Amino acid sequence: MKRLAVLFVLLALLLTGCELPEKTQSGSVSGAGLTVHYIDVGQADSILLQCDGEAMLIDGGNVADSQTVVSYLQHQGVEELSYVVNTHAHEDHVGGLAGVLAAFEADAVWCPVTEYESQCFADFVTYTEAQGLSLTCPEPGSVFPLGEAQVTVLGPQEAYDDPNNTSIVLRVDYGETSFLFTGDMERTAEEDLLDAGAALEADVLKAGHHGSDTSSSYPFLRAVDPEAVVISVGEDNTYGHPDEAALSRFRDLGAAVYRTDLQGDVVFTSDGTEITVSTEREAAVTNPTEYDGSGQFSGGTTYIGNVNSQKFHLPTCSSLPAPENQTTFSSYDAAVEAGYSPCSRCLG
Question: Are 148 and 31 in contact (CB under 8 A)?
Fold first, then answer.
């Protein structure tokens, strides 16, 4: 994992690029760098990648977010898009893409399906076809260039009934740094990626399904082992995202958490060796633990072990053992090292 430098800046500075020095050593790059913008589109996803004059857009938020995304891309100097990716057909990912395709020419448009029953998806297809293009379903293992960055399609590995699990999963490598994009992929698809032996380790992870507990399982997170996690989520949303159980798992990893509901637009820049991050707003706490009533947040999660079953649980699990059969652990790893295995209900 590469060193991650954190910078909190005003939006005006956030949107101002600076030229990075050329690299010539082995394993590095000579371009101007890779920039990854996690655009604040509320309870939705939209991510812009720029590298060496080329641009890729992953998702476009809801229909109502269309102009926000178009304006953001224009502000970043985007004139055309090498790739437009709809990770899956739900409105909070595809809704704004019709407006994007009306404003920008694209070289390729990716989607895991070619048909879906919704007006916003039909509009997405209409504007794709208006450019003389058709939806492409990229195969796992396919590799594409974005400037000097390399885009690898990792999933979906299988056909799924749940649109969330059909999410296109992308790994983007630039020099020695890497980013993983998961759409709304949930645990079933995560397990299939693990079974397929996909190259998941990455410096920065876009959390699946807005930080829902149905995504970001422990086995998946331990394979990715990110230094930073980005959650694209709406302020005070009705879904309860991000879920405390998922936040707890991110704490166990020791990963820095960035959230669009608290910090607005979040932008990472890689020079091929180091990654820096800037946010539109500063937030005092992005991954709080349970409030202990002292005016501070407690420093970590305690896990409850069952001395009989040798399973361990989150304190909120419905399967906690009787008090006389409990033992506590200060971390996930401490429980594993003691020979306990995670509860499939709350930690699976």
Answer: yes
